[in-house]
Amino acid sequence: MQTLINILVLASIYALISCGYVLIYRVSRVLNLAHGEFMMLGAYGLLATASSFGAHPFAAVGVASVMALLVGVAIYFVLMRHMTGESVLAAVLCTIAVGILLRGLITLTWGAQQHYPMEQLGWVNSSISVFGDARISAASLGLIIATAVCYSGLFLFLRYTRWGIQMRAAGQNPLLAAQRGIRLNGIYALAWGLATFTGGIAGMLIACDSGLQTTIVTIGLKAFPATLVGGLDSLLGALVGSLIIGTAEVLLINYVDPLLSDVAPFFILLVMLIFRPWGLFGTREEIDRV
Amino acid sequence: MSTPATLKDKAILEVDKLEVSYHRVVTAIQGVTLEVRRGQIVALLGNNGAGKTTTLRAISGFLGIDDARVSEGTVRFCGKDIANRFPHEVAGMGIVLVPERDKVFENLTVQENLEANSPRQSSTLSRMQEAVYAYFPLLARLRGRQAGYLSGGERQMLAIGAALMCGPELLLVDELSLGLAPIIVEELAERLRAIRDELGLSILLVEQNAHVALEIADYGYIIENGRIVMDGDRERLTGHQDIQEFYLGAGGSGRRNYRDVKQYRRSRRWYG
Question: Nearest Cα to B158, choosing from B193, B94, B110, B192?
C-alpha cells in the first residue's frame, strides 16, 4: 500500500512539472529546457514571500503563485518573443541560457544551504495515515490534489474556453491563426505563464515536503523523460508518462537499489526513443522538429 | 490611373505599385496596381508563380517567419496605409484571407474552427455562427467532426465560414477552385456571390481558373511575372481574344501566327 502511495506522489510531481513542457511545446514548438529552473524559481519565490508575509501563509502562497505566472509572461515578452521567426534550435538554446542564468542568480541570492519554507509559513508537514498502515505527508497530499486540479483545469481550459481553443489553433497553424485575428504574442505569453505557474506550484510543494535546495532542479530534469515518453505534444501523454516513470522509479528503489532512482527515467526514455520516438500519445510527424 | 476621382472614392482597397521581396533579395512581384471597390468581386488571374498569392499575402500581412516585406508601393484600405502590418492587425481592420492551403485548423472540430477566430465585435459571434451554418448547411451537420477529416470542398466551406466569423469587410480568397470538382466550385462560387450580396462584402478572388473567376467577378486583372498586364470589366476580359485563348481555352479559328498571339504583350500596360 505504501508503495502505491509513493508511486502516486512521485508521478504527481512529474506530471505537474511535465505539463509545463507540454504547454510551451504544443503552442510554440519550443522546448523549454529551463523549466526545471522555473520550478526552482517558484519554490524560492515562496521562500521569499514566506519571510515577508509570514503571518498570512495563504497570502504568501497566493503571491508566490502569481509571481510564478508573471515570470513566465515576462520571460516571453523580454526574451522569447524575439526568438519567433528564428530557428527553433536557437530558441531552445536560449532557454538553456536562461536556465543557467537563473540557477546562478538563485545560488547567489539564497545560497546553497537547505531551506524549509514550510516552517517559515508556520505550517507543520504532518503525516496522515491512509488505508491503515500507509502514511502520506500533508505536502505530498497537496501535490496529488494540485496535480489533479491543474490537469482537470487545463483540460477544461483547452477544450471549452475561447483562449484554450485559440491556443490549440495557434499551435497547429500559427500563420492561419494570425490571419484570423488571433494575437500570437498574447497566446504564447499565456502558455509561458501557465507553464511557469504549474511548474512553480510543483516547486513550492516539493520544497514544502522535503526542504529546498538548489538540487531541486534535478527533479525538473527527471520530469523531462516523463514528458517525452508520453509524447511532447500531449497532456494526457504527460500524465501517463509520469505514471510509468514514477512506477519504475519507486519499484527500482524498493526492490533493486535506491541508487538506480536517478537512472530509471533516462533508461526508460532510451528504450522509448528506440521503439517509438514520438512517445506514447505524441503526433508522429512532430518529432523531426526537435 | 485613368479612373475618375469620383469613382475612386468608393475604393475600399487600393494597391499601388506594390513590390514584395523575400529574404531581402528576391523580388516576387514588381509593381502590382489594383483596386477593389465596395461591394465588388474582383478577380486576379494568372498562371503558376505569377505573383497572385504573394499579392494577397502582402495585403493580409507577413509574419516574421516569412522573412518577406513590402519593399515598395502602398496598400491602402479605406484610405489607411496597411503595408507591413501584422496579420492579426489587418484581420482586426476587416481584411480576412482564405488561404490556398492549410486553410483550416486540422486538430480542431468544425465548431471550434469557427469559435477560434477573434471577431471584430464579439457581440455578433453567435449571430454570425448561425449565418455561417445557414450559408453552408453541410457544416452544421459536420460541426463535431475534426477538420482534418473533411474533404476538400468541406474544407473550403469551413475556411470561408471561419473567415466570415471574423466579420470582414474585404474577403481575400486564394484559389477558390484548386483541387475541387467543377460542380462544387460552381456551388461555392454561387454561394460567394450570395454572401457578397447579403453582407455587402467586397471580395478579391485569386484564381488560375479564369472560367470560374470571370463568371462571378465584376472586374478582373491579369498578372504575369509579377506585373499586371491587363485589366478590365468582365465583358472586356471575356471578349478579349488572347484571354479567350490563354485563360479560357477557347481555341481560336485555325492556325495563328506567333506574332499575333503575342499581340497583347506588346499592348500591355506597365505600372512599374
Answer: B110
Give me the average pLDDT of each 10-residue run along chain B (272 residues). 48 90 85 91 88 90 80 90 90 92 91 85 78 93 92 94 92 91 92 92 90 89 87 84 71 54 49 42
Decide if A181 and B106 are in contact by the 8 Å CB cutoff: no
Residue B60 lies in a domain: yes
B118·A181 Cβ contact <8 A: yes
Give B-chain residues touching A171 at CB under 8 angstroms. 107
B97: left (phi over 0), alpha (psi -120 to 50) or beta: beta
- The Cα–Cα gap between B225 and B32 comes to 10
Q: Which of B88, B103, B106 sits opposite A172 (nearest CB)?
A: B106
Q: Which amino acid is at A63?
A: V
Q: How many CA atoms lie within 13 A of B134 on its CB side?
A: 10
Q: Which of A66, A59, A67, A203 is nearest to A122 (CA)?
A: A59
Residues of A in contact with B67 (CB under 8 A): 85
- Å between A288 CA and nearest CA of chain B: 19
Residue B77 in any domain: the answer is yes
Q: Which three cell numbers stand for residue B223?
A: 498578372
Domain count, chain B: 1
Per the structure, the complete domain to which residue B36 belongs is given by: 5-85+92-97+168-267
Measured in degrees and rounded to the nearest 5, phi and psi for residue B125 equal -60, -55
Cβ <8 Å between A181 and B97: no
List CB contacts (< 8 A) between B86 and chain A: 178
| CATH assignment of the domain containing B205 | 3.40.50.300
Asked if the Cβ–Cβ distance from A180 to B115 is below 8 Å, we say: no
The ipTM value here is 0.84
- B20–chain A Cβ distance below 8 A for any pair: no
Query: Is the residue at B116 inside a domain?
Result: no
CATH 1.10.3470 fits A2-124+133-289, yes or no: yes
Size of interface A-B (CB pairs under 8 A): 87
Q: How many whole angstroms separate alpha carbon B45 and alpha carbon B231? A: 10
